[in-house]
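2024-03-11 09:14:02 DEBUG pipeline.ingest accepted 1 chain
2024-03-11 09:14:02 DEBUG pipeline.ingest length=412
2024-03-11 09:14:03 DEBUG pipeline.predict start
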Amino acid sequence: MSYEVKTRKKLEDQRSTIHMDAKKYAQRGVSANKSEVHQAIKNLDKGLFPSSFCKVLPDILACSPDHCCIMHADTAGTKTSLAYLYWRETGDISVWKGVVQDAIIMNLDDMACVGCVDQIIVSSTIGRNKTHIPGEVLQEIITGTQNYLDSFKQFGINLSLAGGETADVGDIVRTIDVGITAFGRMKREDVITIDPRPGDLIVGLASYGQATYESEYNGGMGSNGLTSARHDVFSKSYAEKYPESFDPNLDPSVVYCGSKKLDDRMYIDGFGEITIGKLVLSPTRTYLPILKEMLPSLRNHIHGIVHCSGGGQTKVMKFVDQPLHIIKDDLLALPPLFKMIQEESGSTMEEMFQVFNMGHRLEIFVDSQESAERLIAISESYGVQAKVIGRVEESSDSKKLSIKHEGIWYEF
């Protein structure tokens, strides 16, 4: 059997498995591609720049035709449930600081993709089940929010906490939900849209390792795919011990069906042993300090910044509306975290690329090798590995994405 035929058969087998994986996702009450959400919002106004990563609105403060506003909301998602398990098992209340970072960065880094990297107002919304989440956890989250925002001052980034809402909603929240809303104002001429062009290079910035502004190794998780990771990686014993950490209506076959315990350890080259719990709970890495330094000199050379959150490595295709071929054929090395998730879940690599960032959670489309090298130098000065991971070519018929991993091409 030829290599080409073997590859095609392997992809057909993988796509068959994906249908089963999608069913497993649905059984857990989540969606890998958020198709229903996209359907619900498809007719909403897309703002001043329809191809921007997040919605840009007219300036409602001074009604300036030269300025615009951005308001963004997101949460830490189901990562809070895993944090709850870790806190209950270890007593380490500091894990909630990571959840704060998750919720904040899922907003700020989206906004940074349109060029908004300074003078941002942040508000928090916390819904808790008081039976399981005591006051000291709330204190850790609220104090942690202010402290984390203050930590950006060293990079010349000004973030202000406006307060927020904390409510006891035990009837609808099993443990806790942590959300953030952020607001910024900027010049319209500085807005970055997503406009990839043939000849562009794609620079990927690593989601794993240890940046100069991080205190420990980051596994690269982010805040997407946690429902899958939590249940596929960790042991059934947690379902029995903490029934409040999941929906009791779920099919037991898809609840905590992995082999790992939170305190199991994995060896990471250069960093030693790290518990699996901390690895999966690695706080979402921010790229804000890097973008703040990079944009003044490179803004006009950038044809798009994509935060590879929901949709993983396929995220960019949400913003491509013309016949282009996005090719990612030289990805960063796959970090241990995602290898473990793939092995525990039995997911295909095709599905893994659609759910997880797989090693780089930010990609920047630039106009030349020179621009790419300047960007890479800035990123690596902060300890964040970066490289040209692909390119953009013309497509003869429709838009498409090709990802190469270990000699096999995956088409989307």
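2024-03-11 09:14:41 DEBUG pipeline.report Residues 1-9 have pLDDT under 50 and may be disordered.
2024-03-11 09:14:41 DEBUG pipeline.predict end
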